[in-house]
Design goal:
The complex is a heterodimer of chains A (about 110) and B (about 120). With about 110 residues, chain A is an all-beta fold. Chain A contains no helices and twelve strands. Chain B has no helices and eleven strands. The N and C termini of chain B lie far apart (about 35 Å). Classes of the chains: A mainly beta (about 110), B mainly beta (about 120). The interface between A and B is medium-sized, with 25 and 27 residues.
Chain lengths: ~110, ~120
Amino acid sequence: GDSVTQMEGPVTLSEEAFLTINCTYTATGYPSLFWYVQYPGEGLQLLLKATKADDKGSNKGFEATYRKETTSFHLEKGSVQVSDSAVYFCALSDLLSNDMRFGAGTRLTVKP
Amino acid sequence: GAGVSQTPSNKVTEKGKYVELRCDPISGHTALYWYRQSLGQGPEFLIYFQGTGAADDSGLPNDRFFAVRPEGSVSTLKIQRTERGDSAVYLCASSSKTGGAPNEQFFGPGTRLTVL
């Protein structure tokens, strides 16, 4: 079945460092891809999404490009801030399914 | 506007007891989802409602788990004869999906269930 694999954490960076969190997927159909973020003490929030190949989702300085050839949707940010400390989840949802499949999550800690 | 709300925020129960977890979706959202998130894992799908009907309950782990949405709005997840392995955060999400392309799911804060 459809699944998502994302890089294991935790990831610890200094402020203004470059961030990459890898995410690859397996799907038989044509999924939409998502990054959700969970800040401490809060619920899951959509960070960005892409609905077809070569689409780039972006929000709050984060970007991810839907790469069908490598079945990837890596999350990047050029300069992280302390406020970006959170758990990040890669997810997919297929046209033929009714659920969202999530990766295990990657905990990011940004130190001043 | 109000987001998805879930009550209670925390529930501690004893093994073998029955529990009900409630979800109030965003007003007007026809689709409602339940997920379970174990420590250190991503959310796992349990059940999906479109309106009042359970359109997909393939994620329910066994027949101790049941969910209803009688009026197409509020949903209740019911767990009978709870086991320690049921301890997790139960998440509810809603969306305006009416079929076709998946839309953004809006998540509630979750109910943390602890079975002693």
